[in-house]
Structure formats: C-alpha cells, structure tokens
Design brief:
The protein is of the alpha+beta class. The protein is about 30% helix and about 25% strand. It has 17 helices and 22 strands.
C-alpha cells in the first residue's frame, strides 16, 4: 500500500464497504459522542468520516489529534446506518473504522478558524492565507478559477486562436494608470515597466503575420484598489485578430464568453443574443456605460412636461441653460411616501439637495399624483408624465434636472438604488450586452485640454477624414465594452493601423510626431511596413470568475491577493531594499517630504 494513501477523501463509496484503505489529510473537526470519536478528515478533494472506538488500537492517537493536524489513517470501510447517512457529502453513505492513526504533522493553536468559516478580519485572513485557502468556499472558488480559465483556453482554441506569450519587462505605455517600474542594473538610471496590458505587443503580433492571438495575460497597474479591481496585478483573456471589422470581433467573441458563462452558470439563464447599446443611449437610459440590465428601470427625458410649469426649480433650470434636461427614473411599486422619503434622504447623503418625486395612488375611482412636484405642475402635466412612463397605482417616479453630463452618474446611482430597494433586480441570471460607439476624445477639465476617452490605439470612426474635419469631441471610436450584471468584463476596439492617422490622433491631444515616434516607436515603425487592419479585446478573468462563483470581492477568487493598502501581508511586501541592492542599481531612496 502507498505510504500515505490508497484513496482520496472524496473517493470511497458504498461499493467499497469491507475494503481496507489508507487516507491522509487534515483534521477538519473532532467530535466526541460518549466515548466514540468521530474525525472529519479533509483533503483537496473532499471529506470522509473516521470513527475510532475505545477498543481500537487507533483510539489513543485519536484522542490527541486537534483541528488542522495532518494525519494518516488506516481502516476498514463500513456502511453508515440509514439514519446516519449524510446526503450532502459525497462519501456520506460510508465511514472508516480506524485501525491505526499516525500524526504526520501537528498544528499550533490556529490564528484563523477553518471549520465553519466564520467572518474574520481580512488582514488576519491574508497574513495566514495558507489557512484561509483551506476553507471550503475559498478552496472551491480557486478550483473553479482554474476550470474557468481552462474552459476559456479550450473555446479560444476552437475559435481558431493560438496562445502566444509576450514580455513582462517592457517599456512604459499609456494605458490609463501608473506603471510599476523596474530599475535596470545593466543600464543604470533607466527603468523597465511591467506591462499594464500586452496592447502594443499583440498589435505587433498581427503586423508580424500571426492571424489570431490570445493569451491569459498578467497585467500590472499601480492604482488604488477597489472591490472589482485588485491592487497591483490582475489577469485578462487578451486577444487580437487580423483583417476584421468591429462586427467580426463581436460575432467571434460573443459565443466564446456566452459559452463560458453557460458552462459555469449552474443553471442560471445567460443572455443569448447580446444587445448592442450605443454609449450615448446607455448613459441616457441607465446613467452608466456598464448598466445592470437585470434592473428593468429605464430613465426617460421628460423635459417637455416641466417647461413653463409651476415647478419653478425645474422650469428655471430649463429656461436658463440650453443644455439642461429633466430626466425621470420610473419606480414600479415604489409609490409610498415612506419609500420616496427614503430615496430623498439617500440623495442628500450623496451630496445632492434632494430627489424630487411623484407617486400615484387611487383616490376613489380616480388615479392621482401626490407629492410637492405633482401639486406644482398640476393634474394635467402629472397625468402626462405618468402616461409617458407607463406607471400605475402604487408606482412612483423620481426626477433630476440640469446638464445631463453632470447629473447622469447620480441619476444612474438613483436608478440602481431604486431597483435594489424595490427588489426589481432579478439576481438569478447573467445579463450581458455590448456597449458600442464610445467617444474617441473627452475634455480634461483639470488640464483644460482634449484627452483620449479610452484606448488611444483605437480607430476613430471616419478615419483620418473625421480627424481632419470634425469637432474632436463629436468623434466616435470603434471601441466596445462587454458588460455583465453591472460590471465591465471586457473592453476592446478596432486598431488605428495607419501611421498618418495614428500621428493625427495623437496630435489632437498635444503629442507631436516626434513624441509619437519616441514613445511608440516599435508600433509606429511597424505600421510603415504593411500592417493589416486588426482589432481585439481583453476580458477581465478575475471579474468573470467573481460573477460566476457569486463572490462579492476579487480577493475571494484570487489565491494570494494584497490587502486594500496594496500590501502582501503573507510575504511582507513591499519591503525596503538592502543597501547592497540599491548600490547595484545605482539608486538612492529619498525621504518623502512632509506636506504642510
């Protein structure tokens, strides 16, 4: 028999009754039932119940073991009595009567409980991540992660893609976040950058004549952490295709991502035909370019009902600002003053003066609007608002006014709040869509200049003619995002593969030809020698896994994440370099100046 095990802790079944076996694993818990000891033994695969009675030679050892000790058990497989069968356990019809127990490794008092998975401070969980990873939920999430990535690789291969690796030490690139810099010992005073994404390399792969590339790519960005983004590093399903237009990329990748979701959705419905929603439409309907389509609320422009009305706050805003509009957020079943007051209080907590509302209720046979706005605009206008929004008795509508560019995000947050508070969101499904026609440029108010709105390497719709002849802020890009349940899970675009178009696009944001050649020399040079039209995208693997396993935080689907302060508490990183390391790199650490 093998030194440590003949079976895993998930293998044995009723058919094995009478067999002498050997198991090894961790003591999940010990229970004393009147002198009879029960040990739940756990390994990577599952649990098996061990029984030691006072007559067994293993009983003395069984009395000493504690939670998370590693032991070897020799014993006989026996069937459980009918009332003792555990239907929730794969091995629930059998148990092992121990003949011999060997302690392979004892454990000190635990700083973190494994059994039961109670809530525990996150910093303790991260410092003792090796214990945290023994917890069943996190362990299953990590195993699921590997299966989802394997499914992605399989489906990409079936779609005709080949996996190629790109460099980790590279040059700085304008991906929208800070780079992690790596000092060069051989070239003192110079630095590599860890890739924020393999953007330029994957385009160079297309220029090099490889038709369909993909990679499970590590990406590094020195940015502040948040729930849907880990500090430091993350992984993406990166891909690029030659001789394609936008529709080709979307048509190729939609079945891949849909198939991955269906494979792990555990029976939950998955969108079959992803709607393609223009960015401007998404902002007006949902107040977000990553809308949660499980929420049925769609906002509408109701400005016409408030122009010249008795509600002077809105009427004056509309009269004095040509950009101003009034948007309504219809809220089915929200027609109570208590709910409307809660929404108003929430808005004030968000730094807003309030959130105007109308709610409708039956007064005898008549359906009437109630609330201060209804009183001020009158019965006829109130009824017109209700008709436009398709609302009934017991429903409500909330209103925001001003320049939509300034209030759209708040209106979107109010839509989300109302949908969640009223339980209108169907949480047991995966709703996916494409957001298309993003702005190519945006106005940077801080620096008073035009900036790229998204990926600077995307092709503007209309090409160089549009760059030369249109207001830059009116230009759209061949840029698209994939969204699921309110999370952006992928982003991509058709690339700007023509050198003169590339130079012109960068000139509009203030970078001249020489700067473009210096900063993007490899890509710019490559475009001089025959570049195919190409495009692609990158899907955030961590976010996809988070959605599929139902986790609330990316740290629940990542093996060794950092904390919210971008620290690895397990390995104690970042840490100071030694004087010798600094000398070899020709570096000196300057103390941070205290701000007044």
């Amino acid at each position: 028999m093998h030194r440590y095990r003949s079976h895993t802790c998930a293998q044995l079944r009723k058919a094995d009754v009478g067999t002498t076996i050997r198991l090894s694993g961790w003591v999940h818990r010990v229970r004393d039932h009147g002198g009879l000891l029960f040990i739940d033994l756990r390994d990577h695969y599952g649990l098996t119940q061990i029984v030691a009675d006072p007559d067994s030679p293993a009983f003395k050892a069984a009395e000493t073991v504690r939670g998370e000790w590693v032991i070897r058990v020799d014993g006989e497989v026996k069937a459980r009595s009918a009332e003792a069968v555990n239907p929730n356990l794969e091995t629930g019809e059998i148990e092992i009567f121990a003949h011999e127990i060997e302690v392979l490794s004892a454990a000190r008092e635990l700083p973190l409980p494994v059994f039961g998975e109670p809530d525990y401070p996150e910093d303790i969980r991260l410092k003792y991540r090796f214990l945290d990873l023994r917890r069943d939920t996190l362990h299953r999430n990590i195993v699921m992660r590997t299966k989802i990535i394997a499914e992605m690789r399989k489906r990409m291969g079936e779609a005709g893609f080949t996996e190629y690796s790109t460099p980790i030490l590279t040059a700085s690139s304008p991906e929208g976040a800070r780079d992690f810099l790596v000092p060069s010992r051989i070239h003192p005073g110079t630095f590599y950058a860890l890739p924020q994404a393999p953007q330029q390399y994957k385009q160079l792969i297309m220029v090099s004549g490889f038709d369909r590339y993909f990679q499970i790519a590590p990406c590094f960005r020195d940015e502040d952490p948040r729930a849907d983004r880990l500090p430091g590093e993350f992984y993406q399903l990166d891909l690029e295709m030659s001789f394609v237009e936008q529709d080709d990329v979307l048509a190729t990748m939609e079945p891949v991502i849909r198939g991955v979701f269906e494979a792990f959705a555990d029976g939950k419905p998955v969108t079959q035909d992803f709607p393609r929603i223009p960015y401007d439409v998404a902002m007006r309907k949902y107040g977000s370019d990553k809308p949660d389509l499980r929420n049925p609320i769609e906002m509408q422009d109701v400005s016409g009902h408030f122009r010249g009305s008795g509600f002077k706050v809105f009427a004056n805003i509309l009269a004095n600002d040509p950009k101003a509009e009034v948007w309504a957020i219809p809220a089915k079943t929200g027609g109570s003053r208590a709910f409307c007051d809660r929404m108003n209080s929430w808005a004030q907590g968000e730094g807003q003066p309030g959130l105007g509302y109308i709610f409708w209720r039956k007064e005898g046979d008549k359906l009437e609007g109630a609330g201060p706005i209804a009183k001020n605009i009158g019965e006829e206008r109130t009824e017109a608002v209700r008709q436009q929004l398709g609302l009934e008795d017991g429903d409500a509508a909330f209103f925001v006014a001003g320049d939509p560019k300034k209030f759209a995000a708040f209106a979107g947050a109010a839509r989300t709040r109302a949908g969640e508070e009223l339980n209108l969101v169907d949480r047991d499904r995966f709703e996916l869509c494409w957001i298309v026609d993003f702005p190519f440029y945006e106005w940077n108010e801080d620096e008073k200049k035009i900036d790229f709105a998204h990926n600077p390497f995307s092709m503007p719709q209309g090409g160089i003619d549009a760059l030369n002849g249109q207001d830059p802020l009116s230009l759209k890009a061949y840029q698209y995002d994939m969204v699921c349940n309110g999370f952006e899970i992928a982003s991509g675009g058709i690339r700007n593969h023509l050198p003169e178009t590339m130079v012109k696009a960068f000139e509009i944001v203030g970078l001249d030809r020489n700067t473009v050649e210096e900063r993007f020399g490899g890509l710019y040079r490559a475009f001089q020698y025959g570049a195919p039209p190409h495009g692609g995208m990158a899907a955030g693997i961590d976010r996809v896994i988070m959605l599929l396993v139902g986790a609330k935080n990316l740290r629940e689907v990542t093996m060794f994440p950092m904390n919210q302060q971008a620290q690895d508490l397990l390995m104690n990183a970042p840490a100071p370099a030694t004087p010798q390391q600094l000398r070899e790199l020709a570096l000196r650490v300057a103390p941070m100046k205290k701000e007044d």
